[in-house]
Write a structure and sequence with these properties.
Strand 22 and strand 23 form a beta hairpin. Helix 1 packs across helix 2, helix 1 crosses helix 14 and helix 10 crosses helix 11. The chain has 835 residues and is an alpha/beta fold.
Length: 835
């Protein structure tokens, strides 16, 4: 969908119409009439409250103003404007348009993802008694629940959610419909503003008492009231009114005044008697730090050379790839680049794959850049995200460190974008639309803002490395570890051989256990990487082979010991572990395989004098869960850290001498064309956690495939050869970077309908896309999720064909044609560009 051309400056006396972007999955803008009184205030980029449909009230964005009424319908009036100044800039609207076009979704879906929910006013349906309704004389019969609701509505209107609690029912439609038909109730929409500023309660002397004479009188008054006198004394300690009467205006924080067990009821009495007054002020959620001079970080000779190479590259390229091995000190280079950009007056965006996984980096940057730096991520509340959005708008935050959603923030003077760990799959949004890759969006932002983009990684994605070798990106290599740090020694533990020799204990090779014993004996630390959370990936009956499956998805349940339950990792379905097999009644039900939870337990049993801690999705759900685990490990309170791929990212510890990689084979044999690339990246990244200082560490990789080429390249630390082999393989099989992929998934609650729909849709696609490779339909690895059966189609487009836009348009045509067919109207189609 294209945005309309910019309008002429409107005359404030004429009737204006606004093209409004609404957060709905409909590929169009909606025209609303601007009330004359709002003409001077209506601007592109501000929020407008509008009615959508019969009763729904939602927040939209004005993207154009003009004087042409719509031809198809009579435009409704804008109800209200929410902003004095634009909260979204023209360059953002251009980015929204590109995202909508490239990722084949509605622009409203982009807006929905972009704006923090705290900036989107919502409406909640409210129910009130009809003023003309007379219950006593009504001729209608009312059910018990209807009577209960009417009695509550006599006091005040109620929201849908409140009524649901009152009546103890989830579905209200039949009750609401019945009472509406009986003319007992009226429905309306109440606007709810989701953003609430943070406030703090402060206390001060009332104006009449804020002078020396009055204070002396207060001491006389409180002579026999020690609790009240104590509060007055504490106040004067905190706010020396005798020295400067103007200090009374700011008062003191209520919590500070009541420190030391001073009486809250005595304070309330003082306020009630008008000696003190309580007031609230709005405070930022991110306090302003004192201004500090941002100094350059001292770089090694290799880092200085790399930095000079980046400057040279930026002279010739908008985008540059920094390929720096683990521990080479990329962060120090980033810090200096950020400082130079900020000194020039520009804004900087520093993207990280997952903010909770990069606490160390954020902490370090905060110490250097202080309050000019804002942090933006999913674990923030809506209100915190709104404050970072507003801080970016007002220029308070010049540097934003954030996850993929920070690409939507309202930058107006962006000079530099850094995408750290650019290869990381966390940059790709899976659900809901837009299914964007933040790394690729960052490249488009660089183009729109005329900013430089630096991609950094120890294991660059094959696509980015290819673009660098095609001279579309600049390429800078940093091949030496920082300082005296040496690369770790990598040892393959042959699990087949150890099984034959019967040296395996549980799932631990003798090689790994020996290295762990030596490590702990030397008061050093270890990291164990297993990319499976839970206690056991599978449960089964030893007699009949029964395996518990999810009732909603085509997967087995994972046993979580801390929950005492078997859980589906796709839909969250949960059931207790049975004592008897439901098929044969056997009691021989065993857990099979090792997840992070079981590894943690077994390591604690094997090394009882050591502290073992686990870091996975289950232990880091809270806002501070990850930080606590990292702090414990940094400060030596934890000896062994067990975790999923979280432990591979952004960590730098001084005392880690051993890293163990569990089940490398599962990563390498995953059914995905990127499996070798992901395995190489994960093993290399986690290996980089070992021996970060002058002492080289050891990495033990447990595998039954010791001759596998991926492990050969890991052992040799040979990214170039790995990349070349991977490139040859992808060229032969027509995969990126030589083709572009579009994955189409069809979903339906009925397996037959999903299958028939997929077969029919493939026929339409092949007619619409002659000469284009259309593969499928086939079953994805998990063919049923949340009671929906899935079918997948893969479209391959030659990268140099120049037909990408045309093919996308034809796919959209095919979807429209398919959705018109009656038997397939309930089949949901999901398009994923660059899966």
């Amino acid at each position: 969908m294209e945005l309309p051309p910019p309008p002429l400056q409107p005359d404030f006396d004429q009737t204006l119409f606004a093209e409004v972007l609404l957060p709905v999955p409909i590929p169009k803008l909606f025209t609303y009439r601007v009330p004359l009184t709002m003409n001077p205030h209506a601007k592109v980029g501000i929020r407008a409250i509008v009615q959508f449909g019969d009763r729904k009230i939602i927040t939209g964005l004005i993207v154009q103003l003009h004087n042409q009424p719509p031809k198809e319908y009579e435009a409704k009036y804008i109800l209200d404007l929410l902003d004095e100044f634009p909260i979204v800039y023209d360059v953002q609207l251009q980015l929204f348009e590109w995202l909508s076009s490239y990722y084949m979704c509605a622009m409203g879906e982009v807006m929905n993802a972009a704006l923090p929910s705290g900036l989107r006013l919502s409406s909640e349906s409210m129910v009130q008694l009809n003023p003309e309704f007379d219950f006593e004389n009504s001729l209608h019969h009312f059910s018990e629940k209807e009577e209960l609701l009417i009695s509550h509505l006599k006091n005040s209107p109620q929201s849908y959610s409140e009524i649901s609690k009152i009546l103890g029912v989830k579905t209200l439609y039949s009750i609401i419909k019945s009472l509406t038909a009986k003319e007992a109730i009226l429905l309306y929409e109440e606007i709810i503003d989701k953003y609430t500023p943070k406030t703090e309660t402060r206390i001060r002397l009332t104006k009449a008492n804020a002078n020396e004479q009055s204070i002396q009188q207060l001491f006389e008054t409180f002579a026999k009231k020690p609790k009240q006198e104590a509060i007055l004394l504490k106040y004067l300690q905190e706010v020396p009114v005798f020295r400067d009467a103007s200090l009374n205006t700011k008062g003191v924080l209520k919590a500070t005044l009541l420190e030391g067990d001073l009486s809250a009821s005595s304070l309330n009495t003082l306020i009630k008697n008008n000696y003190f007054e309580s007031f609230e002020i709005i405070v930022p959620r991110f306090p302003l730090d004192a201004e500090t001079e941002i100094k350059d970080v001292l770089l090694s000779e290799e880092q200085q050379l790399a930095q000079q190479e980046i400057f040279k590259s930026f002279d010739q390229h908008s985008y540059t790839l920094l390929h720096g091995i683990t521990g080479s000190g990329k962060t120090e280079i980033y810090i200096n680049l950020i400082k130079r950009a900020l000194d020039s007056g520009a804004q900087v965006l520093y993207l990280l794959p997952e903010i909770a996984l990069t606490t160390q980096t954020v902490t370090r940057l905060k110490k250097i850049f202080g309050s000019v730096m804002g942090v933006y991520h999913s674990r923030f509340s809506d209100n915190e995200r709104v404050e970072v959005w507003n801080g970016t708008l007002t220029g308070r935050f010049k540097l934003i460190v954030g996850v993929r959603s920070s690409v939507f923030l309202p930058f107006d003077n962006l000079g530099l974008i850094i995408v750290d760990e650019e290869h990381d799959p966390s940059y790709k949004q899976q659900e809901p639309a837009p299914r964007y890759n933040a790394r690729d969006v960052a490249l488009m932002m660089g183009k729109l803002h005329h900013a430089k983009v630096l991609l950094g990684s120890a294991t660059p994605s094959v696509e980015s490395y290819y673009q660098a070798h095609q001279n579309k990106y600049g390429l800078v290599n940093l091949v030496k570890r920082y300082g005296e740090a040496k690369l770790p020694e990598i040892i393959l533990a042959d699990m087949d051989q150890e099984r034959k020799n019967k040296t395996i204990k549980g799932e631990f090779s003798k090689t790994l256990l020996t290295e762990l014993e030596n490590c702990l004996a030397n008061n050093e630390q270890a990291i164990i990487f297993q990319n499976r959370r839970g206690y056991s990936p599978m449960v089964n009956c030893q007699d009949c082979g029964w395996v518990p499956k999810c009732v909603n998805c085509a997967v087995s349940l994972t046993y979580h010991q801390y929950r005492h339950a078997m859980v589906c990792h796709y839909c969250g379905y949960k059931e207790m572990l049975p004592t008897n097999c439901p098929t044969c009644s056997s009691t021989r039900i065993l857990t099979v395989g090792y997840g992070t939870e079981k590894l943690e337990e077994e390591l604690q049993l094997r090394f009882p004098d050591s502290k073992v801690q686990r870091m996975d999705w289950d232990t880091t759900r809270t806002k501070t869960g990850y930080e606590t685990i990292i702090t414990n490990f940094e400060e030596g309170r934890t000896n062994i850290l067990v975790g999923t791929q979280m432990v591979t990212k952004g960590l730098d510890f001084d005392h880690v001498s051993v890293v163990g990689v569990f089940n490398a084979d599962r990563m390498m044999h995953f059914p995905d064309f990127r499996a070798f690339e992901r395995a190489f990246q994960l093993i290399t990244q986690v290996s980089g956690r070992a021996g970060r200082r002058e002492k080289p560490g050891k990495v033990i990789i447990q595998t039954a495939s010791t001759e596998h080429p991926v492990l050969k390249y890991v052992l040799e630390n040979n990214f170039e050869q790995f990349y070349q082999r991977e490139l040859d393989d992808r060229f032969q099989n027509h995969y990126p970077p030589f083709t572009r992929l579009i994955e189409v998934t069809l979903k339906n609650i009925d397996a037959k309908v999903a299958n028939a729909g997929a077969l029919h849709f493939v026929e339409i696609l092949r007619k619409k896309l002659p000469g284009t490779t259309v593969l499928g339909p086939g079953d994805p690895m998990v063919p049923k999720i949340r009671n929906q059966y899935l079918k997948r189609i893969l479209i391959k487009i030659d990268r140099g064909s120049g037909k990408l836009s045309e093919i996308k348009n034809r796919i959209q045509d095919a979807i429209q044609l398919f959705s018109k067919e009656k038997e397939f109207r309930k089949v949901r189609i999901i398009v994923n560009v660059d899966p």
